[in-house]
């Protein structure tokens, strides 16, 4: 993996950014989730970021319930993802 650094972002905040999707999906270990939760509670920027991400996910979930993809789109997406190695069929 490439060495990625963001010198303008404090390391603890960068951890939140890097793990936010796994955090929101409940995919982190209890210790990592507790560490991120403690930081988010203490850091206004990360609290704002987390609220934005949660709102984004909620909006996407609402849209998914109300909008329907054109016929065949789901199948084409699954094929394309499979061809790129991202999903099993
Ligand atoms: Zn932070």
- The end-to-end span amounts to 27 Å
Overall geometry comes to: extended
Radius of gyration: 17 Å
User: Kindly state the mean pLDDT as a whole number?
Assistant: 86
Tally of strands = 0
Count of separate DSSP helical elements: 4
How would you characterize the largest beta sheet? none
Structural class: mainly alpha
- Ions and ligands: zinc ion
Helix/strand order, N-terminal first: HHHH
Secondary structure: helix percent: 55-70%
Uncertain regions spanning at least 5 consecutive residues: none
The share of residues in extended strands comes to under 5%
Oligomerization: single chain
Care to describe what's here?
This protein is an all-alpha fold and 89 residues long. The chain is built from four helices and no strands. The protein has helices at residues 11-24, 30-42, 44-66, 73-83. The longest helix has 23 residues, at 44-66. The radius of gyration is 17 Å and the shape is extended. It starts with 10 loop residues before the first helix and ends in a 6-residue tail after the last helix. The protein binds zinc ion.
Please describe the topology of this protein:
Layout: H1 11-24, H2 30-42, H3 44-66, H4 73-83
The protein binds zinc ion.
Zinc ion (ZN) binds next to helix 1 and helix 3.
């Amino acid at each position: 993996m490439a060495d990625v650094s963001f010198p303008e972002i404090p390391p603890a905040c960068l951890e939140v950014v890097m793990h936010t999707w796994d955090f929101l999906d409940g995919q982190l270990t209890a210790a990592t989730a507790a560490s991120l939760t403690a930081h988010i509670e203490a850091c206004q920027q990360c609290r704002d970021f987390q609220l934005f991400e949660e709102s984004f996910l909620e909006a996407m979930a609402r849209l998914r319930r109300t909008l329907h993809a054109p016929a065949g789109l789901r199948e084409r997406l699954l094929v394309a993802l499979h061809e790129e190695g991202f999903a099993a069929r």
